[in-house]
Amino acid sequence: MRLLNKPNRLMLKGICYASIFLIVMLFSSPAWAQEAAPQDNASPQAVPGLDMSEATIAKGKELFVGRCQSCHAVTEQVVIGPGLKGVLERRELPWLLKWIRNSQALIQSGDPIAVQVYNEYNQTQMTSFLDLSDDDIKAILAYVKSAENQQQQAAAEVTAQTGGSEAAQASSGINQSYLVAILIGLVIVLVLVLAVLLLIVSLLTRFLKSQNLPEEDLEVVNEKIDLTAPFRSKAFLTMVGVFFLLVVAKAGIDSLMDVGVQTGYAPTQPIAFSHKLHAGKYQIDCQYCHTGVRKGKSANIPSANICMNCHGEIKRGSPEIQKIYAAIEKNEPIKWVRVHNLQDFVYFNHAQHVQVGQIECQQCHGEVEKMEVVQQRSPLTMGWCIDCHRKTVVKAEGNDYYDRLLQFHKNNAGKKPMTVEDIGGLECSKCHY
Ligand code: HEC
Ligand code: HEC
Ligand code: HEC
Ligand code: HEC
Ligand code: HEC
Ligand code: HEC
């Protein structure tokens, strides 16, 4: 017994196409919308004798990165010297000033703590910093303290929100996939309900027909079946056809748009260099190696000499480190494989974004400090650039260069914040040669 007559089958097909269309539309929504990373405005705890203003901390950070970071981390981690976390609690400020300026002098004067620390670290000599003023050293210590406060805050946040920061970052994505799942579920339920309804209609019609109904009643029954006639019509079939074509076209266009988009690209590098180890565990600042980020267009990949600042001593025997030595001996650069690569007709400048725009590396590159191997996390498409320029408010406060622009914007746009779009961030010539 055939339960579904032709019109009903046609209608079912129509519904199927419609739901396929819906599902494809849902899945194919472009993923270039970037969530802005939350800014941490940790207001540091006060420490007697130290100026904890942002300017001082910034100066301290610069000094620390340049002078101390090759041997010290701001965590408990021992690099060559002890981790400096908690150093302000375990030592007096005047002692620290003397030690950092000239540790050898302090040791020779017989200071018991100095002698003890020196022996504890196998009498490794710490460099003397005779050129640093008290204020310089205090700035470094202020930075160490502020980094400590930030770590505490981060740890508190991680425990507060179960799942930690990674989950928080991914949450927008998770929400979206939940939504998609729910919608698909709804569509499936709808299709099922419709199918059941059609079955019932079909069965009922059959049943009524099999009864010996009077002439007029039969007419009514037959009329009902005719209600499905519109679905047999040419117009309906054309609609279904057009729907189907649209689906195919959308899928085609999307796959074309994806040509050259390399999100997730993570090539194997010639040396097993790990950001997770260097930038994560040992907290080496990105700029220590990527020296160009605040100065110019390119971030720079560090030369082998920068590696040697540390690996002249650390892990000399490791085969991976031997590759650095080999490169230096042959006077050849290490052949790192490029991960991020914009097309030649696009102009992108790191300093503009990192120094002027105050955007964190992670907003564009993801959490590099957690990556064993660097992976491209953003699509680097035009839509991605434009999307951020539309959304991001320019950090104009305290920047004289923007004062007049900001005033102009206030006069013209009222309360709306000034985004990158408002300073010309959507002009073709800004990004295209
Ligand atoms: C060449 C490596 C090196 C550099 C560069 C270096 N240190 Fe040290 N530092 C050490 C070592 C090693 C020790 C452990 C004591 C020793 O062996 O002399 C130490 C000890 C210390 C201590 C004492 C820690 C404690 O627990 O008492 C402080 C504070 C310190 N360094 C601060 C600094 C600061 C600030 C700078 C940058 C201006 C700096 N160091 C640069 C190697 C270094
Ligand atoms: C000790 C030096 C060092 C530090 C510190 C460091 N990097 Fe790197 N970085 C490298 C080297 C070497 C490469 C090239 C090899 C590779 O891709 O792993 C690289 C590659 C990269 C790349 C990919 C470049 C490309 O080819 O497109 C990005 C992005 C990057 N680093 C970001 C960061 C960020 C963000 C930080 C700070 C959280 C950081 N790096 C800290 C040495 C460093
Ligand atoms: C500021 C110091 C510092 C700099 C600069 C640095 N490293 Fe390292 N590196 C370390 C420390 C510390 C370790 C961990 C050593 C250990 O595990 O005992 C390490 C470990 C490594 C290892 C793992 C070695 C092994 O066999 O376990 C590799 C590979 C490496 N570094 C490559 C590089 C390269 C390439 C560069 C230059 C782009 C570089 N490092 C720059 C401090 C540094
Ligand atoms: C606004 C987004 C954005 C920010 C912020 C950003 N980058 Fe990049 N980065 C890019 C793009 C886009 C490229 C590819 C550039 C190209 O191909 O010309 C790139 C390339 C790189 C490269 C490869 C070498 C080069 O210069 O082309 C490194 C290394 C790098 N970035 C490191 C960093 C570090 C470290 C930071 C933080 C201090 C950072 N980036 C901040 C977008 C960004
Ligand atoms: C995460 C957000 C973000 C992304 C992604 C981003 N930008 Fe920007 N961009 C900014 C901000 C913020 C500024 C404004 C900096 C300032 O204050 O001048 C800016 C400014 C610029 C400017 C200067 C505009 C002007 O009018 O002065 C250019 C050019 C530019 N970006 C190019 C790019 C390109 C090309 C890409 C993609 C490869 C890109 N940006 C991706 C945030 C972003
Ligand atoms: C904020 C930076 C930015 C601005 C503003 C911008 N573009 Fe682009 N554009 C890009 C980037 C990045 C790409 C490379 C996309 C890729 O490789 O997938 C690109 C690619 C293109 C392409 C090549 C498309 C392709 O798939 O290869 C054309 C054409 C183009 N842009 C035209 C324009 C025009 C016209 C304007 C002005 C209305 C404009 N762009 C403004 C960043 C920008």
TrEMBL record:
Protein biosynthesis as UniProt keyword: no
TM stretches of this protein: 178-204
Coiled-coil ranges (or none): none
The keyword Transmembrane is annotated on this UniProt entry: yes
CDD domains assigned to the protein according to its UniProt record, in alphabetical order: Cytochrom_C3
An annotated Gene Ontology molecular function: heme binding
Span of domain Cytochrome c: 55-148
Protein keywords: Heme, Iron, Membrane, Metal-binding, Signal, Transmembrane, Transmembrane helix
Signal sequence annotation: 1-33
PANTHER family linked: CYTOCHROME C7-LIKE DOMAIN-CONTAINING PROTEIN, LIPOPROTEIN CYTOCHROME C
Protein's recorded name: Mono/diheme cytochrome c family protein
Annotated organism of origin: Thermonema lapsum
